[in-house]
Every structure is written in C-alpha cells, then in structure tokens.
Amino acid sequence: MNSAAEYDFIIVGAGSAGCLLANRLSANPDHRVLLIEAGGKDNWFWIKVPVGYLYTIANPRTDWCFTTDADPGLAGRSIHYARGRVIGGCSSINAMIHMRGQSADYELWAQATADERWLWGGSDGPGETLAIYKGLEDYFGGADEWHGAGGEIRVEQPRVRWKILDAWQAAAAEVGIAPIDEFNRGDNSGSAYFHVNQRRGRRWSMADAFLHPIARRSNLTVYTQTQALRLLMDNQVHDDQRRGAWKTAQHRVTGLQLLKDGQIVDVRARREVILSAGAIGSPHLMQLSGLGPAGLLAQHQVPVAVDLPGVGENLQDHLQLRTVYRVQGVRTVNTLYRNWITRGGMGLQYMTLRSGPMTMPPSTLGAFAKSDPALASPDLEWHVQPLSLPKFGEPLHSFGAITPSVCNLRPSSRGHVRLADADPLTYPKISCNYLSTDADRHIAVKGLRMTRKIMAAPALARYGPQELLPGPDLVSDEDLQHAAGELGTTIFHPVGTCTMGAFDSQGIPRSAATVLDTDCRVYRVAGLRVVDASAMPTITSGNTNAPVMLIAERAARAILG
C-alpha cells in the first residue's frame, strides 16, 4: 500500500461519536486520521431546518432505512428502524432533544464496569459524568452548577410554545407530576419543555459541533459515500502484550476493506481502528469480520477470528406507546397545517424570526414519573406532541389532536443484531423482542393508564379531549397489553450491542456477554475499539445522543492518554 492509504487512526462512522473522535484525535498534528462515512454530506436544506426530520427519516438519502424482524410483542409487525446515513449520523436526523439521563443510570454503568468514574459526580462525588457534560456544553443560560458554557454542543430552549401543551403540563401537575425547570440535573421527576441541540432556530448536529469547524486540518481525511466491508486483522500481537494493552489478545486489527467509488480498497491503521457505526452497524461489521458468536458466524460460513458471544446481543430500546386524543378550541400543528395561508405563515415566521412551529422537534414537552412510588427514580417518560397522524410518514389528521407517547425507560426485554449472510452489503437482522417480559407488559399498562389519568384532569377539560388511540372501550389489563403491542413503535434509541463490562485482574471479563472494557477496547482484539451507543451496558433514561457524546469524550481521553 502507498503511504496515502495509511493512517494512525481510522474511524468508521461520521455520526455523533465519530465527529467528536475525529476532532479530538486530529488535534495533534502528528496524528493522521481517516473518518469514513457511508452516507453523503449534510448540506441538504431539510437537515438544518428542525422540522425537516419529517423528510430525512425514512429517506435513503439520510437514513439507512433498516426494518426489524416481525416482532411477536408488536402483534407480529415489522417496523422501520431509522439510523442516520449522512455526515452527522443520527444527530442530523434525530429529535434534537438534549437529554443526559439520570444519575441512577450511571450508577448502573459504574456497577457493570467496576468503574466509579461513570458516576454522576459533583462537588463531593467521585464520578466524572456531570463534569464531562458541562465541559462539552454551550448552554443558553451560561455556566452554573449544572451547565457549562463555551463547549461545542449548543443547548437552547425551544422557540415555540403551545397552549395545549401548557394545559397538558398543568394536568400532569394535578395528578402529581410537577413542573420543573429542566431534565438534566440528575433526577428528572416532573415535566418541562425539552432543551434542544439548536443554534438560533437551526439544527446543531454533532457535525456542526465537532467536524465542520476543523474540516480543513491537513491531517484529517474524510471519505463520504464509502462503506466499510470488513476489518483487516493479523495475529501479531506480541508488541501489544508487552505494552500490557491486552494480555489475552488473539488478533490485532490493522485496517479496513472499503467500498469506495465502486472499487474495493484497503486502508491501514498504524494505531487503532475505532468503530462508531452505531448500535446496528458496529456489531454487524464485527460479525462480518469474524468477531462475534462462533455459532452464528459458522452458520453463515464466516471464519471465526475471536469467539465473542456478546457481539450483537443485549439490544435495548425505548418502546413508545403513541396515544392520540382529539381536542377542540385550541391550536395544534394539525389545525395550522390545514390550509396554505397558515402553512405560509409558519414558513414566513421561520425565515424572518427563526421561531415558530418549523423550529419544533418531534416532541416539545416531556414528563418523567414513577410507575411505582417505591422506585428510587422515574421509569416512565412522556413525549407530548401538539399534532397527530396515523403513523410516521403519513399525512396529519385533518382535526386538532395531540399525541402523548409514553415509554418504559428501563425495559427488561432484550433483542439482538445478527448478520443475515456473509455479504457486507446485506442488511443485518434486527430483532427487538419488545414487550417480551412480564415486567415490560405490566409497565406498558401502567403507562397507558397514567396517560388516561392526565388526559382526564381538570386542566384539559376545556379542550374536550377524546381518546382515539388506544380507544376508551379498552379497559382490562389484557386489552391494554394487546393495545400496547399494536400501538408500540421505536423511539429510535437502540443501544447495548457491544456492551462494556468489568474484567478481573487477568483481563478476563466477569460476564460472557461483555465485549468492551470501560475504555471501549474490544476483548481479545488489539487495536480496535467500539465507541458509540453499542457500548452502553444499560439504556439511559431518555434520548441517547448526549450519553453517546459522554462515551466518545471519555474514549478520546483514554486513547490520547
């Protein structure tokens, strides 16, 4: 290979984590860094306009357009599983909601990895999580006890409010879910308008934050429209063992085979390959390369390099149950979109003031509560939308309505991602196994009943809410469990398919499901890390983009350190 095809670090995936890693690793001019993205550039108009998610999700220009296997928990349905396929990855098509999760989430991570640095921390705590979040942040209100200023990730208040959502918040308060200032202080109990990753009414993706400002660095190369096909490996790991990197390493990753401009080419990594292709892409690429469950690989005639049973397993996601209520006498997106005059007004407001409905994320108001008062922290979240539609991608209803979606923040159901065959261009099989445990079905029913309780509170009475979905005739637990399966769909938060775990003093994982150590290094494989949502041992409470940035920042520090 000529020198142009050799780099110190190769990063697969220019999504949220990949953009941060490219920024941090190329800050040293002695590092030659290659960033690979299967999709194209993020310069399309609808990526930057917040409401453009309606056009970017389920669009092959910006979305991988995966679909899941038929799911018994969803009444046998297969659902669309959006993942970003563009510079910025999911942060170019997501809901823009800035949600750190709760301190209890990071207690679980610390237990799983035997690493107290994952703890939330603070002035008297051992953890680093809050401090890293503050360091990454450019908060609209400036630096304070909870927030940072001057970081790359812009966080702003929403630029539109809705009377119907204010009434919903008041109704939630009447049933015990009090209004709060925000969700990012460690305990999210209450309701508030979501903070968003926007700058002056435009989407602020992680490419805007980390990649575009440093795109002219001479030591950074970005390939777009380039797909990683397989990892290149050899078994020369003696140098790694002498350095103490992995006493148990069986192989060293030396580079990647790529499909670029219709040609198959190899690129070499002198130091590390870092997979940031997401909770679907990263385990799939590992399996194609012989890193994964030996039985699965043998089934598809893939030579086994390292038997790693956890690769592709432990898939977790938040299942949202979309309830729909018709309302009257109040403005909703449905009523504004009913004619060209109000639609034109929305566009004019956005073009002149960068405010109004076109700055709106998919969900504007949120709420957190406990399904059981005995719980230490909330396990239910609502995303409340001032609109309704039969399903995503279809036209809005012609009448005024709202959609309060409720999801279980700590599902016990587990799915998996597995290669379908040995062809790198064949999409993997995604099985979510939603509602496959008694606990998840029970919490689904609780969430639907609590939603009904909020909608029946006095603060909403003036708008005459009428339940359309799941339907007022469904009363029993059995009926509501069945409805949850028919209504449920992903909220696009897949995590956990290459999970971090704890290791003993000999470098052996304490669980066979563990794939990574706490610095995101792959067990038994030198020169390879997985830095994205795959690494999460357990799913966080709420949207997952901010926690991915936490993982990426910590991994970058570990690599550079």
Offer a few descriptive terms.
15 helices, 2 domains, 25% helix, FAD/NAD(P)-binding domain, 20% strand, 561 residues, eight-stranded mixed beta sheet, Cholesterol Oxidase, domain 2, globular, alpha/beta
How would you characterize this protein structure?
This protein folds into two domains: 3-94 and 206-316 and 494-560, FAD/NAD(P)-binding domain, CATH 3.50.50.60; 159-193 and 319-408 and 435-493, Cholesterol Oxidase, domain 2, CATH 3.30.410. The radius of gyration is 23 Å and the shape is globular. It is of the alpha/beta class and 561 residues long. Strands 1, 2, 10, 11, 12, 13, 25 and 26 form an eight-stranded mixed β-sheet that branches. The model is unreliable at 241-245 (pLDDT under 50). A hairpin with a 2-residue loop joins β8 and β9 (202-203).
Please state the structural category.
Answer: alpha/beta
Per CATH, the superfamily of the largest domain is: FAD/NAD(P)-binding domain
Strand content: 15-25%
Largest sheet: 8 strands, mixed
> What is the radius of gyration computed over CA atoms, rounded to a whole number of angstroms?
23 Å
CATH topology of the largest domain: FAD/NAD(P)-binding domain
Write down the overall geometry.
globular
Terminal CA distance: 29 Å
- Individual helix count: 15
CATH class type of the largest domain = Alpha Beta
Strand element count = 26
CATH architecture of the largest domain: 3-Layer(bba) Sandwich
Which ranges are low-confidence, i.e. pLDDT below 50, for 5 or more consecutive residues?
A: 241-245
Q: How confident overall, as mean pLDDT?
A: 95
How many domains make up the 3D coordinates? 2
Helix content: 25-40%
Keywords: FAD, Flavoprotein
GO molecular function: flavin adenine dinucleotide binding; oxidoreductase activity, acting on CH-OH group of donors
Cofactor: FAD
Family: Belongs to the GMC oxidoreductase family.
